[in-house]
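Lab notebook, bench 4. The sequencing result for the construct came back, and we need a structural model before the next group meeting so we can plan mutations. Quick request posted to the team channel:

Model the 3D structure of this chain.
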Amino acid sequence: MADTPIVLFVCVHNAGRSQMAAGFMRQLSGDSVEVRSGGSEPGDQINPIAIAAMAEVGIDISQAVPQLMTTDQVRDSDVVITMGCGDVCPIFPGKRYEDWELTDPAGRGIDEVRPIRDDIKRRVTELLAEITGEPVSA
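Done. Here's the predicted structure in token form:
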């Protein structure tokens, strides 16, 4: 991996799961990881319930904008985490790929989104510890 590993979080609309994961990774990693996110079919805006769920844990993702995932983003990343976007993500040799099976928060209330958020935080914390070789205090 590069001096600063690059992690790309990808979901279909880049409006919920991938944005929450990117928010956690930014907060937990400080400057030790470059964080990117994208979608295979980006939505118009970030899911307001995802914004609210993240605000509850002190992370502001309200200024994020859904982005189209590009082949260059995937090629330039060290770790690519997909969340329910199937086979649309291009595969490059030598990259670390993981598919996180997470419920899509779209159309769900805050009580249903909190457990998704907490699962994402746990996974991001584990991933960060693996990437950096350091224990991470969540």
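Helices lie at 17-29, 48-55, 71-76, 110-132.
Will bring this to the meeting.
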